[in-house]
Amino acid sequence: MSGLGKGIGKVEVALKWDPSPAGRPPTDLDIVAATYVASDPHGAPAYVVHFDSRSPDGTIYLNRDSRDGRGFGWDEVMTLELDRLAERYTRVVVGVIIQQPAERRTFVDVRNPGLRIREGYSVLAENDFGDVLGATAAAVAEFVRDENGNWGVHPGVHGFEDDPATFLRSMGRLHLS
After folding, report:
1. pLDDT tens, residue by residue, 142-162
2. Angstrom distance (rounded) from CA 173 to CA 41
3. N or C: which end of the chain has fewer CB within 10 A?
């Protein structure tokens, strides 16, 4: 980013996948976002946004939530209005969790998954989770505020094999930069 850059303002994280084959339980993926404060940027999240919540100030929210991958286009979409986040928040980590029904599921069990992160019409990152097929969850992007207050992104898919609750507690320890 140049010195004249304004940084990233409002981003959309979108996720898609195909429904499970007939006779199999539905596959449910969820986008999650965790915010971190300047005094503890890699510790416990200040708050987490997931399928049944939104940020306290309304700057991070789920636009679309799918429980089975049915439909056309992007099945799950989260918006992050980084330019409206309070100054105390200096880092946001976004992840994807595979809900775990009775049997353990990993990305190899998800049919045709796809991820897109964009600001307006500019695509910042795309991925198919091919490098984390054995994972049950993945961190997919880290948004970081610089010393000038501008937001930048460090995309990259890093898999985890934890249960969803453990993933939410540990995803902030990862440095994607």
Report:
1. 999 999 999 999 988 999 998
2. 9
3. C
SS (H, E, C) 20-68: CCCCCCCCCEEEEEEEEECCCCCCCCCEEECCCCCCCCCCEEEEECCCC
Q: Are 168 and 23 in contact (CB under 8 A)?
A: no
| CA atoms of 162 and 109, how far apart (whole Å) | 16
**SS3 at position 92:** strand
Residues in the chain: 177
Beta strand extents in the chain (DSSP E only): 10-18, 29-37, 47-49, 60-64, 76-81, 89-98, 111-119, 122-127, 137-145, 151-160
pLDDT in tens, 35-82: 999 999 998 999 999 887 889 899 999 988 888 888 778 999 999 999
Maximal C-alpha separation, the chain? 55
pTM of the model: 0.92
